Structure formats: structure tokens, C-alpha cells
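Practice problem: predict the structure.
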Amino acid sequence: MWPESNQIPIEPAGENKPLQRHHTPRYYAHRVKESLTKRVSKLICAIFLTFFLLLIVIAFILWLSLRPHRPRFHVQEFSIPALAEQGGFQNAHIIYSVTARDVNQNIGVYYDSMQLTVFYEDQRVGGSPVLFPFYQKPKNTTVIAGELGGATLTVTSQRWKQFMADLGRGEVVFRLEFRSTIRFRIWSWDSKHHKMHVRCPVGVGPDGLILPSYKDKRCPLYFS
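Answer:
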């Protein structure tokens, strides 16, 4: 008799063989079609995004080139010769020269008539019209120069004493204010009207001439 065994014989495990799937030609055609569709979709999206970004860049460049810049005013000369003279109050007059520049590349500026007013401590001491309406071409500079005296300069003896007291401390400061209404000319289109205000502080020394720290200084400009 054969000896009894309590173990159940186990069949040796064979190697796991991968199941082979057989796909039909229709399946492969569908996969190829699906892959091509994805590629075409990505290509169309890339072209659209590139075109959109290009439009944004072009629009930004046009905006920069057509956005008007404000005119720039600089004080070139300002003097009151009588301040350097004894008893010069009777012959007091103001000599001034200011430049207005259109810094735009392709945009001109229409000016209505321009008014100049001179202030001392926010008190008017003189003024007059300085320019008739005119058109300023792009990249062009206009010189605004003249004199104030007689009826256009309202300085009292008391005010003159204040000037001399300031000079004793080193300088007397005035403010030139130009007012005008302007329009920008962009090709054949005109912008709306802007009320322009230009304020130029100027300091005068004991010799009656503008101090170097105020000369060629850019004047603040704002619209109202």
C-alpha cells in the first residue's frame, strides 16, 4: 500500500501569458482619425491665439502712436531790470521768453488765443494776450516772448517794497500762468477742446535776472 499523504498535489503554476487582443482595421482607422482631429484642433487653437496676440500688439502700438502728449513749456528768460536800479519803480517792466513745444510725432496742436498773467504771492501784478489762434505742427517749437509794462503791469509802490524786501533775502519769486484752449489734430480728425493751464514759477535775483535754478525748467501743465 502507498503511504497516505495529507497534502493535496498542486499543479505547478505556469507563466502568465498576456492576452492578445486582435483589433479590426476599423478600430485602427478610428484611432488615426481621432489623433488627426486632436492635432488639427491644437493647430487651429495655436493659430487663433497667435493671431489674437498679434492684434493686441498692433492695437497697443497704434494706441501709443496716436495717444497725444501734452505740450511742454519751458521758461527761457525772465527779468525785471528795474529791480537792480535805485528808484526803478517808475520804469518797472517785465521781459519774458517761454517756449511751447509739440513733442508728438504725428499730432499737431490747435491753440485758441493765449492769455498770460503774472502773479506775486497769488496776487495779479500784470498780464496781457500773447498769441492769436494758431496751429502748431508736430515736433515744432513756438517762442512766446514779449514785455509787460505800463497798463499791462499793475505794480504799486507798496508791492514794489515787498519785491525789494524779498530781494534782500536772496530772491523774489513770481508765477507766469498761460491759459488757452487747445485741440489735438490727429490726421484729419480733431479732438475735443481742452482748457489748458500752464504755471511757470520764476525766481529773480538782485540783478533783476532769472536765477539759473529756474531757467529752462519745465512748467507744470494741466487741463480743466
